[in-house]
Design brief:
Distance between the termini: 34 Å
Helix content: 40-55%
Low-confidence stretches: 1-30
Strand content: 5-15%
Number of helices: 18
Shape: globular
Structural class: alpha/beta
Mean pLDDT: 91
Radius of gyration: 21 Å
């Protein structure tokens, strides 16, 4: 399965968690430097946005529009500076005390570490902070609260993970290209076997078998969210996946690997785009990437017994907006943050990038867009049912612990998945229970 472009800025090596932990100060919660004066202060600010071409174009346009109406509160925008990962760059900026006011590409998995560094502003420190977030994002907003119940991030845009399939490969394998049998685990496995045995494609599906902590977000986690009815990997300080649903997902993937339907070796390139794989887990970003190259279809991720699509949740692959504690003109930063997450700017983001603003009733809010771009409707519907990574202490280490157990037992078949996930759950309970 192909990792979404919005995730390419995430930490690409486990060492990032170590690097950030090494530079973290012993601070509980987010930053509060400047207090009420900073919260009300206005004036010029700096922001960073993604280096993704479409997002950069949107960011430049948004900054220009703001500046034309706020001459005394000029916003200077730039791409996140180059570095191994954007999270390492942000973490280093927090340590140096020169982070921008806003970063429009803050990964939820990194928020606990940035918060531990004292680098993030509690958005509830603004009088309308919590109400604005709750009103815009609805029921899903609560997933973005930190352990202390505060918002250190504004949920912004999502790329809900679904299954893309190559219609030409399916047709070659004698599989229906409309409503293909992919709803249940048994159907998915049988379809996968037909693809490989017919030699229509080398692999039925090709998730990355590498060990980076974020890889579960594109194989295990979307299916676990769907199978469990929307559980996060950790809830109320305890791992949730050591249960019948979690084991069922692991056994499903183990079967695909054992039968040779999902390869165990890394692929250097885009397996789906080159036709090596018949299926991939993707977000709406994939429509622009593959639209003119692959005759594709899209379905929700499978569940054990085939849930109705309206009942299926999936991983959000979301990016948030963070306000950083080095910011002295937080009054302007908050007003600009609300401007770029307004109905109009969210609509422009949708039009320019195809990514889904984390707000209620996308289809009803932007009917003209979805009428003109019907390919995005399925993703917009799915965006109403998304599950985020848990915002918990030691988030990166937690995911790495899970990935290590999953890789050994599910991908490489060296241990029993149930035993491996049970041991990982105990280790994760300890990790997320630590305060620092």
């Amino acid at each position: 399965m192909h990792n979404s472009r919005s995730t390419l800025t995430l930490l690409t090596a486990v060492c990032c968690g170590t690097l950030l932990a090494g530079c973290a100060s012993d601070v509980s919660g987010g930053g509060s430097g400047g207090g009420k004066n900073a919260t009300k202060a206005t004036g010029p600010i700096k922001i960073w946005y993604s280096n993704n071409a479409e997002e950069k174009a949107w960011g430049v346009a948004a900054v220009t529009a703001w500046n034309s109406a706020h001459a005394d509160q000029k916003v200077t925008g730039q791409e996140i500076p180059a570095g191994k990962t954007s999270e390492e760059v942000i973490g280093a900026a927090i340590t140096a005390g020169n982070a921008p006011c806003l970063v429009l590409n803050t990964a939820p998995a990194a928020v606990p570490q940035f918060q531990k560094q004292g680098g993030l502003v509690d958005l509830g420190s603004f009088p309308d902070g919590e109400s604005y977030i709750n009103d815009r994002s609805g029921a899903s907003a609560g997933q973005y609260k930190s352990a202390d119940g505060k918002y250190y991030q504004m949920p912004w845009k999502a790329n809900p993970v679904m299954i893309f399939y190559n219609k030409k490969i399916f047709a070659k394998a004698g599989i229906p290209t409309v409503n293909p049998p992919l709803k249940t685990y048994d159907q998915f496995i049988a379809t996968a076997q037909k693809i490989v045995s017919s030699k229509a494609a080398k692999a039925a599906v090709y998730p990355s078998p590498t060990s980076e902590f974020f890889q579960p977000w594109f194989d295990y986690y979307p299916l676990y969210a769907a199978q469990s009815g929307g559980k996060q990997l950790v809830e109320n300080g305890k791992a949730t996946f050591d249960d019948a649903d979690g084991i069922a997902v692991a056994q499903f993937w183990r079967t695909l690997y054992d039968k040779g339907l999902a390869p165990r070796e890394p692929f250097n390139g885009d397996a789906f785009g080159t036709g090596v794989s018949a299926m991939s887990s993707v977000g709406p970003w994939a429509i622009k990437v593959y639209g003119g190259k692959v005759d594709w279809g899209v379905v929700p991720v499978p569940t054990k017994d085939g849930k109705d699509p309206s009942q299926i949740t999936t991983f959000s692959d979301e990016k948030s907006i963070g306000m950083y504690s080095a910011c002295k003109k937080r009054g302007t930063a908050w007003q600009f943050l609300k401007f770029v997450t307004s109905k109009d700017e969210d609509g422009k983001l949708l039009e320019m990038t195809g990514q889904m603003p984390v707000r209620t009733d996308l289809l009803g809010t932007y009917p003209a867009y979805f009428q003109a771009n019907p390919a995005y409707k399925t993703f917009a519907d799915q965006a109403a049912r998304i599950v985020e990574v848990p915002v918990v202490p030691n988030s990166i280490q937690m995911w790495q612990t899970f990935r290590d157990a999953y890789s050994k037992s599910v991908i490489f078949g060296k241990t029993d998945p149930q035993a491996a996930l049970g041991a990982a759950a105990k280790a994760i309970d300890t990790l997320v229970g630590q305060k620092s």
